[in-house]
Amino acid sequence: MILLWNLVFIYLVFINLHKKNNMKAITVIKTALIACCLLAVNLSSAFSQNNEKFMIGNWLGNIEFQGKKLPIVIRILSIEKDTFTAFMDSPDQGAKDIKITRLLLRNDSAIIRVKSLSASISGLINTKDSTINGVFRQSIFNCPITLKKTENIPTVNRPQEPKPPFPYQITEVNFGNMKENIELAGTLTVPSANGKVAAVVLVSGSGPQNRDEELLGHKPFWVLADYLSRNGIAVLRYDDRGVAKSKGDFNSATSENFSNDAEAAVNYLKTLAFIDTNKIGIIGHSEGGMIAPMVASRNKNLNFIVLMAGPGLTGEEILLKQSVLISKAEGETEKEISKTDKLNKMIYKIVNEEPDNTKAAKEIKKIYDKSTKKLSKEDKKLADGQKDVMIQQVTSTWFRYFLKFNPKDYLTKTHCAVLAINGGKDLQVPADDDLKAIEDYLKLAGNNKYTIKKFDNMNHLFQNCKTGAVSEYSKIEETIAPEVLLFMKDWIKRITE
Question: What pLDDT was estimated at residue 326?
Fold first, then answer.
């Protein structure tokens, strides 16, 4: 979930292609997969009568990499005849409720499979010390694991997550994107007030996001909606098309399609008697921050937009800069960074110039194989294992659109009030280059109703952080820094007075 979040995996793989120590590469890939993959389909199962009751409960184990531990939790809620309900969690990654798709119990052994992660755990059940001793496997990687039955599951602390009572009305709503005949579902929070109120639509970052923009144990849009509605501003947040309760197909959509969804949300707000239709805006985070100007450039009724780490650079420029910054954060050498950068540029050139996916994939495989042929046998095997995933991502409809996307086309046609904010330690959308480009394009539009603000010590999620590295996101308890919430609220209040 956030701009390029679903692409971070690709770059972390690229970054580690030339690692001498392949275990670090495996670590990066493992954590990225656990953080991002959250869906699966139930498969068949078979059970041992003796172990069914014993297996119900919570099982905790660790996957170990170079002395570092990644906790894994298996939660088995029920086993009845040939059916079961069970989930895997990765607390450190903020990933939870990953469906376990097969649970096979025979005699003293257990096999647990998670299709969405291409992962499995197989081992021997020891009822005396309540353990399962076995092996964790994912793709070409495997390591020992011991699951211990426990009552205490590791949890992440999210102190900003809203808790009742709520001093505003919460309503589940549905509205239609009439251009594409898609029904979207969301939540509208409306403050108790006399008369009409200002309102905002929240537009999420890249990847399939629910209405809370939930990722890594954080719910940024729930925190933002709660804060604004407590301060007199109505907020509509919605599930991306094809996610949760919204209809439609997410995988075939581009940012252009998502902009139609956002505009549909704005149009829905205009139909509500208690909303001041002259005081409606959009807050877009990351990819949402590129969608907001798309809507504003063609919808003159928008009063304002807020770009939270929204792009000012082209898609390709952001991807290249992002790769370098993440590489540096991962401790790569200049030589390794240069190799990755060169590979990225060649791949993007192919994607830009070859519209046929089959032909593009063939060309990408050639240069990818050439770049990895000098790797050790194990590193080569690791790289080859991820090649098809990478090619599928970079030739997707969404990626092709994003790669060529130029915010200039929309910001130079945006005349409403604009607030553009970035974190100074954002590695995904570099703040200085980004904010400068946004300001330059707004000046070209003749728009003097803008505010530019950089929060020096913050990352892509607007958390106070140490390095800005993606790996920090889930470890930081703060969801959105209070000073960012205050700054946005005060700015909106001034614009809508």
Answer: 85
Task: State the burial class of residue 197 (Cβ atoms within 10 Å of its Cβ: 0-12, 13-18, 19+).
Answer: buried
Our measurement of the distance from residue 213's CA atom to the centroid of its chain's CA atoms, rounded to an integer in Å, reads 8
User: 173 — phi, psi (to 5°)?
Assistant: -130, 160
HSE on the CB side for 455, CA within 13 Å? 25
- The pTM for the full model equals 0.83
**pLDDT for 381-413, tens place per residue?**
767 777 888 899 999 999 999 999 999 999 999
Q: How many CB atoms lie within 10 A of CB 202?
A: 28
Q: What would the two tokens of residue 306 be?
A: 């807020």
Residues of the chain with CATH 3.40.50.1820: 168-314+405-496
**pLDDT grade for 372, boundaries at 50, 70 and 90:** confident
CATH, range 168-314+405-496: 3.40.50.1820
Strands (E) in 207-265, as ranges, are 234-238
Pick the range with the lowest mean pLDDT from 39-43, 313-317, 475-479: 39-43
d(CA 400, CA 170): 38
Q: Residue 482, SS3?
A: helix
C-alpha dihedral, 378 to 384 to 390 to 391, nearest 10°: 170
Which residues contact residue 289 at a Cβ distance below 8 angstroms, ignoring those fewer than 6 apart?
A: 3, 203, 307, 308, 309, 310, 311, 420
At 361, the amino acid letter reads A
Burial 30-47 (b: 16+ CB within 10 A, else e): bbbbbbbbbebeeeebeb
Residues sharing a CB contact under 8 Å with residue 377, sequence separation 6 or more, in sequence order? none
Query: Where residue 34 falls among pLDDT bands split at 50, 70, 90?
Result: very low
Q: Hey, which bits of 18-56 come out as E strands?
A: none
430: preceding bond cis by omega (within 30 degrees): no
* Cα(238)–Cα(285) distance, integer angstroms: 13
124 and 146 Cβ atoms separated by less than 8 Å: no
Q: DSSP assignment of 170-204, as one string?
A: EEEEEEEETTTTEEEEEEEEEE--SS-EEEEEEE-
Percent over 90 (pLDDT), the chain? 68
In the chain, ranges of CATH 2.40.128 domains: 37-150
Top-level class of domain 37-150: mainly beta
H helix runs in 354-430, sequence order: 357-372, 377-394, 397-404, 408-411
Residue partners of 239: CB distance under 8 A and separation at least 6: 184, 185, 186, 209, 210, 211, 245, 246
Q: Are 367 and 340 in contact (CB under 8 A)?
A: no
The Cα 23–Cα 112 span in angstroms is 24
pLDDT at 140 over 90: no
Q: Do 283 and 199 meet the contact criterion of CB atoms below 8 Å apart?
A: no
Helix or strand holding residue 94 (H, E): none
